[in-house]
Design a protein that fits this description.
The complex is a heterodimer of chains A (about 110) and B (about 110). Chain A is mostly beta strands. Helices cover about 0% and strands about 55% of the residues of chain A. Chain A has no helices and eleven strands. In chain A, strands 2, 4, 5, 6, 9, 10 and 11 form a seven-stranded mixed beta sheet that branches. In chain A, strand 5 and strand 6 form a beta hairpin. The model of chain A has no long low-confidence stretch (mean pLDDT about 95). Chain B is mainly β and about 110 residues long. In chain B, strand 4 and strand 5 (about 45-50) form a beta hairpin. Chain B has strands at about 5, 10-15, 20-25, 30-35, 45-50, 55-60, 60-65, 70-75, 85-95, 105-110. The chains are: A mainly beta (about 110), B mainly beta (about 110). At the A-B interface, strand 4, strand 5, strand 9 and strand 10 of A face strand 4, strand 5 and strand 9 of B.
Chain lengths: ~110, ~110
């Protein structure tokens, strides 16, 4: 099994729909992250969580929300999807000292 | 910004040549990591160098760290077509939120 699993891998949704991207990890780490990547660009941080009771906004949190259901699960929601949220989304987890991050395979989201 | 900034943004070399990428950051770090991203895939951890280390090797990878200049470099020797990818650095800061943030990366193309 992969260390970090994202579902779905691909999704096409309509403008205005609510959509949830799910992430689970088997590393036992407390820290989890959601990133967005647009074509040819780097990763931008949407939200991050350092433990189950800790949720923090990243640099581009508007239009997104998250839920940390358990140490192993961190989901990202788009409350009302819009076309400019079309992107590749990554979930990651790391240890307390950020010595190594493990990434999921990504979710390719298209909003039409 | 807490992120590292990679330079150059893009690099194209012939197979067999060496590739050097640089990373600069702004504040004191505990460690600095380098990651590789193949097109559309999740980032994969390559190597970590701690703040008290100046150089580290892993196979064909050589990483240096100059904390006085707040910079690091990643050298890939004897490049192969399979090294074609984007490369990101991630400095783990001593202070602050210590969230894992990435820059835009260096897009490396190895030409046969």
């Amino acid at each position: 099994d992969a260390d970090v699993t994202q579902t779905p891998r691909n999704r096409i949704t309509k403008t205005g729909k609510r959509i949830m991207l799910e992430c689970s990890q088997t590393k036992g780490h407390d820290r989890m992250y959601w990133y967005r990547q647009d074509p040819g660009l780097g990763l931008r941080l949407i939200y991050y969580s350092f433990d189950v009771k800790d949720i923090n906004k990243g640099e581009i949190s508007d239009g997104y929300s998250v839920s940390r259901q358990a140490q192993a699960k961190f989901s990202l929601s788009l409350e009302s999807a819009i076309p400019n949220q079309t992107a590749l989304y990554f979930c990651a987890t790391s240890d307390l000292w950020n010595t190594e991050a493990f990434f999921g395979q990504g979710t390719r989201l298209t909003v039409v | 910004s807490q992120q590292g900034e990679e330079d150059p943004q893009a690099l194209s070399i012939q197979e067999g040549e060496n590739a050097t990428m640089n990373c600069s950051y702004k504040t004191s770090i505990n460690n600095l990591q380098w990651y590789r991203q193949n097109s559309g895939r999740g980032l994969v951890h390559l190597i970590l160098i701690r703040s008290n280390e100046r150089e580290k090797h892993s196979g064909r990878l050589r990483v240096t760290l100059d904390t006085s200049k707040k910079s690091s470099s990643l050298l890939i020797t004897a490049s192969r077509a399979a090294d074609t990818a984007s490369y990101f650095c991630a400095p783990a800061l001593i202070q602050g939120a210590q969230k894992l943030v990435f820059g835009q990366g260096t897009r490396l193309t190895i030409n046969p």
